[in-house]
Design brief:
By secondary structure, this protein is an alpha/beta fold. About 35% of the residues lie in helices and about 15% in strands. The protein has 16 helices and 15 strands. It binds pyridoxal-5'-phosphate. Pyridoxal-5'-phosphate binds next to helix 5.
Length: about 450
């Protein structure tokens, strides 16, 4: 359908969007290939965010489209409860080859939010099936983003995602976040200062007692709250405190999974093995919705007791391991392997770092953060109008032919992993031009 008037936009209640502002001045995308989108009027836009941190292999991958259409023609749907289909088992076996160590079982969902809520439920149920039912408390972190289910917003730490929705899950507490411009502004890669912030978990153990705590969930690198990096040694410290007290550690790798940092998962990049990893986005290159929870062997094994005819986990989705999503995931993994994309960010990260740090000195830039193929550029908020300056940069960037993301006054970039050095220069060069025009 060609959109010709505002009335055509009315019915769609857009997610995480200022609907009236958008509908008064819409930004539409209608085609995509490689590193680019095109607008309906034919303007080419360089994708600086891999769609929404998901199109890691770039747009329009015919191999994925063909695999999905073949699967839909062969069998569009099969029930996942008490029944199975070959692509579900194939994709599971394939995926656990790229996960760290013994994270060798996978539970499928359809989004990052569902993956997170599944992981939280698995954590609580895990302790219960082992006879430790008092461990029900979940620990998240300030500024964390874990999707929009009630579990995810409860452990999440972004105020606007929480304050409208009443009571959260009971028994949740939060670690302090790790963003500190006073100590760490303009760090290149992970900041040196702040590993001790992980000791917040000791404080929460002292307050609640470890015997009540089921799991801690953190993003190895927070994306949605504006690219917050773990200080050097922080994740290791969190791991050892969890080990000390028998608390499960969940890494939410919806953004960092599938090559974003230069390794398949952040867990490998940081050399810290969590008990569970949640993933989505890059799992299917964004082509078909799919989420996953990878669990360590001891977690899966803990459920495999009792009579064999009894369902071990009363949880799942109509579309868990949907055949079309499995086909998309398999084709995506083929591309990642063949093109070396799960490690490509490591090759480009120095070039990326130098490019984004060249924006230091642009008006109102108060911090630049980078890791792998991720960057956050924080702007000084305008007095009394938080977010307005970054929003102006975002709209001007789109007019100039680059797609970026904003969260508050932080500009985030996470391009497809196929970006070339020349395209890095183009993306960052155009952003610099834009920033110089934003007062
Ligand atoms: C770390 C993290 N967890 C969970 C989610 C939620 O994923 P979805 O939007 O697919 O539900 C996101 C989305 O950006 C995310 O970044």
């Amino acid at each position: 359908m060609a959109i010709s008037s505002r009335a055509d936009l009315e019915a769609f209640w857009m997610p995480f969007t200022a609907n009236r502002q958008f509908k008064a001045n819409p930004r539409l995308l209608s085609r995509a290939e490689g590193m680019h989108y095109w607008t309906p009027d034919g303007r080419k836009v360089l994708d600086g965010v891999a769609g929404l941190w998901c199109v890691n292999a770039g747009h329009g991958r015919k191999e994925i489209t063909d695999a999905v259409s073949r699967q839909l023609a062969e069998m569009e749907y099969a029930p996942p409860f008490q029944m199975g289909h070959p692509p579900g088992f194939e994709v599971a076996s394939r995926l656990v080859k790229v996960t760290p160590r013994d994270l060798d079982h996978v539970f499928f969902a359809n989004s990052g939010s569902e993956a997170v809520d599944s992981a939280l439920k698995i954590a609580i149920a895990y302790h219960r099936v082992r006879g430790d039912a008092a461990r029900q408390r979940l620990i998240g972190r300030e500024k964390g983003y874990h999707g929009v289910g009630f579990g995810g917003i409860s452990v999440g730490g972004m105020v606007n995602n929480r304050k409208f929705f009443g009571a959260m899950l009971p028994g949740v507490d939060h670690l302090r976040h790790t963003l500190d411009l006073e100590h760490n502004a303009f760090s290149r890669g992970v900041p040196e200062w702040g590993a001790h912030l992980a000791d917040d978990l000791e404080r929460l153990v002292a307050l609640h007692d470890a015997s009540t705590i089921a799991a801690v969930i953190v993003e190895p690198v927070s994306g949605s709250a504006g690219v917050v990096l773990p200080p050097k040694g922080y994740l290791q410290r969190l791991r050892s405190i969890c080990d000390k007290y028998g608390i499960l550690l969940i890494f939410d790798e919806v953004i960092t999974g599938f090559g974003r940092l230069g390794a398949p998962f952040g867990a490998q990049y940081f050399d810290v093995v969590p008990d569970m990893i949640t993933a989505a986005k890059g799992l299917t290159n964004g082509a078909i919705p799919m989420g996953a929870v990878f669990v360590r062997k001891h977690i899966y094994d803990a459920f495999m007791h009792g009579p064999e005819g009894v369902i071990e986990l009363f949880h799942g989705y109509t579309y868990s391991a949907h055949p079309a999503a499995c086909a998309a995931a398999l084709a995506t993994q083929d591309i990642y392997q063949r093109e070396g994309l799960l490690s490509r960010a490591a090759e480009l990260s120095k070039r990326w770092e130098d490019a984004v740090h060249s924006l230091r000195g642009c008006p109102n830039v108060i911090d630049i953060r980078n890791i792998g193929l991720v960057a956050g550029i924080e702007l000084q908020p305008r007095a009394g109008a938080p977010g307005a300056r970054a929003y102006e940069a975002f709209t001007k960037a789109f007019e100039q032919g680059i797609l970026i993301r904003i969260s508050g006054d932080v500009i985030a970039m996470s391009p497809p992993l196929i970006i070339t050095p020349a395209q890095i220069d183009e993306l960052v060069g155009k952003l610099g031009e834009v920033l110089r025009t934003v007062a």
